[in-house]
Amino acid sequence: MAKQEDVFKKVISHAKEYGFIFPSSEIYDGLSAIYDYGQNGAELKNNIKQYWWKAMVQLNENIVGIDSAIFMHPTIWKASGHVDAFNDPLIDNKDSKKRFRADVLIEDYCAKIEEKENKEIEKAAKRFGDAFNKAEFEATNPKVLEYRAKRAAILTRMAKSLETENLADVKALIEELEIADPDTGSRNWTEVRQFNLMFGTKLGAASENATELYLRPETAQGIFVNYLNVQKTSRHKLPFGIAQIGKAFRNEIVARQFIFRMREFEQMEMQYFVPPGTELEFYEYWKQTRLKWHLALGLGAENYRFHDHEKLAHYANAAADIEFNFPFGFKELEGIHSRTDFDLKAHEKFSGRKLQYFDPERNESYVPYVVETSVGLDRLFLALFSTCLKDEVLEDGSERTVLSLPPALAPVKAAILPLMKKDGLAEYAETIFNDLKYDFNLFYEEKDAIGKRYRRQDAIGTPICITIDHDSLVDHTVTIRDRDTMKQERVAVADLRKIIDEKVNFRTLLSKI
Q: Is 470 part of any domain?
């Protein structure tokens, strides 16, 4: 656990030091759980968006993208259930005066049980070596079975209590498990109560005539209320999808773990509209399709797993999370939900407008069912950044820190580095920079020894460094250095555009899906 905390501290420190993420309003002591993306962070974030958008919209003939407004009619949130049901269970510690999500306290307790279970499996694997049968061990070992049964019983009870809003039992469960404030060890808890997560605001010049609004807590409703507009203007038949990337806002009880849980965050969502009765088939399809998209990033299959929901949201008949192994353990990265026809029917009811689709093959009109995929952009940023950030010991005993991002996502695609500023090298390097800048985001630097400049580029994930020396002026060749292998080779200046493009274009990532 201590090692994981050290890794996470290094991630946060590196993100600030190298221009990826800054605490928002830092000169005024900041705001809790609000962050700004720096020059390199903004580039990486935009590249992640491009990867998602190209895979979701560009590669699918029956999926289109929109950009709906953050401000929406307040009745939308009544229809969606957010006004009445968008709550988290809140609990306070009377001694420390700290506030927690009751369900997260219980889930963290279960995570510790899972750690014990994994330690038993790891010990057995070391003991038996190549003869170890993991599946058989997990199915027969008494301790593993005991841990799993205990965890399942706790989570099932919690899910049932939350579903029936039996908050007294949620508190009773916390007390029975002897869960303490993680910082102080105090078990002096208040009652559990519900806390609505939406931010309220007003629309209008005069306060007495202003309309009460909410900042949207999710981007999905903007898709649902535009469903008929998009279907009619795009002339798509079912099944078809609508994708969107946008900001959402939630007044989290406990915003924590850097950019993992923030009050202002960004979602990449796609709602897939399907005929009733086919939704579970498409739900399974999108579970596997979305996992392939993640795996193409090369972060390791062992870092992903599915978690099927025991407690379903009021709109769903099936739901699963793709969880990722963050420095603080497996947590939700993306949700795939079969939302049934709840949203569209609710908006029909509250708006008085028909949102039905006439199916020429069935020769009938109906309200479509919806399968949703929703990935947190900030969480994906954190998954990439924390996994790709590595300390390496080189053959000569020296060390380097490298951010081994997929080249297509790297903030800077290539660095142009004249060996020295004099003798015309800087001027020739600037000529190369000005020729390539129309196609790639480049970085130009003259200062310090070339080795130091290489290290700085490694730290921000630049895939290629291009060094211009005296021979470059004679034979128009340069030295290119690969970030991951550190191998260097001499190439013609005329070939640089092709070499960089082959390394950093999105085709490499997209072809793996």
A: yes
